[in-house]
């Protein structure tokens, strides 16, 4: 989320940039106190809107993904749309490939032209996030087929 807000900030100008900077500062403040909260407090503290509570991020942060992946013997499917502005192919997808390079059952699927929801990217720009997700569409059938084939093969 930090890299998302930084990316949005880089792409913004004028008053929008000022607003984004202030919102990013507020968000970062919420994350700074995240691990100081009790679980009960974190369950009641909204971080994004009214639905996404601090507990979601607190729990996610407790799990060290790299350690888990490096020691896992379970089959792993890593999928990402190239048009996903929430994560980066270079920073995220390629990092997973590096971490799992010696994992015998790691499968990687990178989908050109798809967004975070595995639907065709409309704008592919974080500044147009609302427009990106307001267009009614479906997950691409070939993504569903890839998931089904992976499940069936394991």
Description:
There is one protein chain. This protein has 154 residues and is mostly helical. 52% of the residues lie in helices and 11% in strands. It is built from eight helices and four strands, in the order H-H-H-E-E-H-H-E-H-E-H-H. The chain has helices at residues 2-11, 14-32, 39-44, 54-62, 65-71, 89-99, 129-134, 141-152, and strands spanning 46-48, 52-53, 76-81, 106-111. The strands form two sheets. A two-stranded antiparallel ribbon has the order 1-2. A two-stranded parallel sheet has the order 3-4. Helix 6 (89-99) links the parallel strand 3 (76-81) and strand 4. The two termini are 32 Å apart.
Keywords:
single chain; 154 residues; two-stranded parallel ribbon; 8 helices; 52% helix
Helix-strand layout with pairing:
Elements: H1 2-11, H2 14-32, H3 39-44, E1 46-48, E2 52-53, H4 54-62, H5 65-71, E3 76-81, H6 89-99, E4 106-111, H7 129-134, H8 141-152
Parallel strand pairs: 3-4
Antiparallel strand pairs: 1-2
The whole-angstrom Rg is: 18 Å
In percent, how helical is the residue content?
A: 40-55%
Low-confidence segments, given as residue ranges, are none
Q: Rough shape?
A: globular
Major beta sheet summary? 2 strands, antiparallel
* Mean pLDDT across all amino acids: 84
What is the spatial order of strands in the main beta sheet? 1-2
Count of β-strands: 4
The string of secondary-structure elements, in order, is HHHEEHHEHEHH
Instruction: Figure out the total of helices.
Output: 8
- The class by helix and strand makeup works out as mainly alpha
Strand content: 5-15%
Q: End-to-end distance, in Å?
A: 32 Å
């Amino acid at each position: 989320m930090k890299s998302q807000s930084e990316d949005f900030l880089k792409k913004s100008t004028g008053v929008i940039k000022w607003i984004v900077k202030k919102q990013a500062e507020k968000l970062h403040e919420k994350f700074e106190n995240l691990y100081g909260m009790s679980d009960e407090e974190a369950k009641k503290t909204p971080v994004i809107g009214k639905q996404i509570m601090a507990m979601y991020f607190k729990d996610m942060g407790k799990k060290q993904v790299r350690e888990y992946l490096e020691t896992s013997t379970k089959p792993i499917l890593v999928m990402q749309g190239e048009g996903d502005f929430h994560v980066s192919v270079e920073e995220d997808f390629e990092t997973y490939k590096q971490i799992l390079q010696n994992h015998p059952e790691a499968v990687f699927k990178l989908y050109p032209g798809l967004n975070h929801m595995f639907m065709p990217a409309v704008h592919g720009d974080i500044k147009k996030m609302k427009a990106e997700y307001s267009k009614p569409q479906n997950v691409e059938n070939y993504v569903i087929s890839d998931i089904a084939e992976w499940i069936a093969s394991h």
